[in-house]
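Worked example 3. Consider a protein that binds adenosine-5'-triphosphate.
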Amino acid sequence: MMARGMTRDRICVIPGEDAAAEAVLNVLDVMKALDTGLDWHVCENTSAIGEGGRPQLAAEAKEAIDSSRATLFGATGGPNAAALFYLRWGKQTFANVRPTRWSAGMPSPLARPEGIDLAIVRENLEDAYVLIEGDLAQLAPLKLRSRTAGIGPEAMGEGAFSVKAITREGSLRVARFAFELALQRKAAGGAGRVTASAKYNMQPRTDGLFIECAREVASDFPDIDFDVLIVDDCAHRIVRDPQRFDVLLLPNLYGDILSDAAAGLTGGLGLAASGCYGADYAYFESAHGTAPDIAGKGIVNPVATLLSAAMLLDYCDRAPIASALRDAIDRLHEDGRVLTPDVGGTASTAQVCEAVLGHMQA
Ligand code: ATP
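Given these inputs, the predicted complex is written out as structure tokens:
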């Protein structure tokens, strides 16, 4: 029976490749065994041949994404790249949330990981990810001058450049998202703090703009504490004092790197969830990649994908099921008997999923 007030929603599932796909398909079995009231629609082939033989998003994959409320995505090393690009830039999913929470039994390199509970909010569309690169010589007509070396990039010799683009609108909207998340977390007992970080001392135009926008938004949220760190100092503090962080707001590239570092404090990539949110769409995927080195062995840790599915359930107004799933995952680690090899166990992906279901039904 569905809880009152729930509507049936369609969810698109794109398993992706290699071990990531194995995790998604096992997690899908867990989702189907739960009374979510969601229709799960698996879309295996997302790529078609477009003009000039270039791969493009298959029409049925676009339709599957567009007709769903959200997507559960595996990971891709290329074959599903068009689908990922559509989910991200096509659907304008501008805020990537990557939570890191320690619970008893999770391995950690820290002596005292108790109380780590932070969420990185990473801007998801801009920065170095606009993917505009070229030869330094192409910049000659712009007559640019380096503020440190005093010469133009074309005079530096043979080399390449990459565009790092940060916009005011993009920074304001992701900052607003971070503060709203901090408010929600505060209502659930969180610290009520946003820390914004970037290399604004060396990149005053781009990173400076990002921090300026965060400051501007902070003034609209008087109930949330706000502080700013230079990103290298931030990296140091994530390792030395991760408990000081609640919501950590970062531009795209720093967010990508520091969220993997944060994941390393609480069990590693096999446990790291991720959700990408836009104004009217969201997709959810583990923070890890396709893990080709363990493909076909049946040992990929499904917890990262299970926790991403829990974020999807929250997004689709199924908070009680999401919270029961997170509790079951906590019990899995506390119990410690059914774990995959990456976190010190000998169990298979399927056995972990079965154990999580068992904890939910206990
Ligand atoms: P890609 O090119 O798709 O990013 P990758 O192997 O370079 O793949 P990841 O997939 O993130 O990057 O994997 C990095 C390492 O972490 C690999 O050794 C992989 O096996 C391991 N790993 C990642 N995710 C998991 C998981 N869920 N369970 C177990 N090991 C994992």
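Take a moment to read the result before moving on. Residues 168-187 form the longest helix (20 residues). Residues 23, 75, 77, 269-270, 288-294, 300-301, 304, 340, 342 surround adenosine-5'-triphosphate (CB under 6 Å).
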